[in-house]
Specification:
Length: 295
């Protein structure tokens, strides 16, 4: 396995150099480069090793554009898990998609429920996850029925963030926790359903206006990590055009992974050297609480 990983890294590193040589003046890959990359991508071994090199949420590697976005969220959730007794508890993952964070909770909670819009949950889910199709603004669960509601990178995409938070409060048992993350700095993505960004103060107001007691709001990373995320994510997204959904350039991501890794490492070093003014995190994570008296 280590041999295959070294082979893939060698091939793809050379491919990165070829891309740099073949970029034309407009910054668009020419047909010769695209043909070369498609030959590489047709190799099943490289397809499997893509996950080894870039990782997969929540285990993105330093070579992934999403590294400085996902790593602090995972650390935050891991901290929440270590500080709370979750045995036998019911966790609701709102806007779950493929439920990437199930791996963090699978041995901790009694039941894991995933909810998302129609077509966004896996059709052939083999993990013990209960699936419920529906919107964050209208959760199909009873009042006071779950112990933890989790919402990661979702509130920027919902049609009504206030109603979504109110629904989280409704389904939570008194004493339950609402946890999650939202972007502060990020390119437009998943259009046309990308409606807002959050500051610490806006997030706190949103939670408190819906009767939550805010325990923690934590910014993720300094300005250099935010720049690294914005720059590399922007590389791989298509040009934003009204009425057109986003496209993601997986070929470019594979070819430029050494460059992305260098940028991510440099951003981490610079953030550790210079004082973090806490004004430009890429994300905010939070823990909010539904008081025992909230009936």
């Amino acid at each position: 396995m280590q041999y295959h990983a070294k082979v893939a890294c060698s091939v793809l590193s050379r491919a990165s150099a070829i891309v740099i040589l073949y970029f034309n003046n407009s910054g668009v890959l020419n047909l010769k480069t695209i043909k070369f990359v498609k030959i590489l991508m047709a190799n099943p071994l490289l397809d499997r090793l893509k996950v080894m090199i870039l990782g997969r949420r929540p285990n993105n590697t330093i070579f992934s554009f999403n590294y400085h976005n996902i790593k602090p969220v995972v650390q935050f959730l891991t901290g929440f898990i270590s500080q709370n007794k979750l045995e036998g508890k019911v966790l609701l993952d709102v806007g779950a998609g493929q439920s990437p964070y199930y791996e963090l909770f699978k041995d901790k909670v009694g039941e894991y429920i995933a909810t998302d819009l129609e077509g966004l949950l896996p059709e052939n889910e083999t993990r013990p996850i209960k699936q419920i199709t529906g919107a964050a603004e209208n959760l199909l669960l009873e009042d006071n029925s779950v112990d933890v509601v989790m919402s990661n990178q979702v509130l920027e995409h919902v049609l009504d963030e206030r109603k979504s938070v109110a629904e989280a409060f409704r389904v939570l048992k008194p004493g339950g926790y609402f946890i999650g993350s939202v972007p502060h700095i990020s390119p437009i993505h998943l259009e046309p359903y990308d409606f807002r960004r959050f500051t610490e103060y806006g997030l706190k107001q949103l939670l408190e206006n819906n009767n939550f007691e805010v325990k923690v709001i934590e910014g993720n990373g300094g300005v250099r990590k935010a720049i690294a995320l914005t720059l590399t994510m922007d590389w791989f997204l298509s040009k934003h055009e009204n009425g057109e959904p986003q496209k993601f350039n997986g070929i470019k991501q594979l070819l430029l992974f050494p460059v992305v890794g260098f940028i991510n490492i440099k951003a981490g070093i610079l953030d550790s050297i210079f004082v973090d003014k806490k004004r430009s995190p890429s994300n905010y994570c939070w823990i909010a609480y539904k008081k025992e008296s909230a009936l």
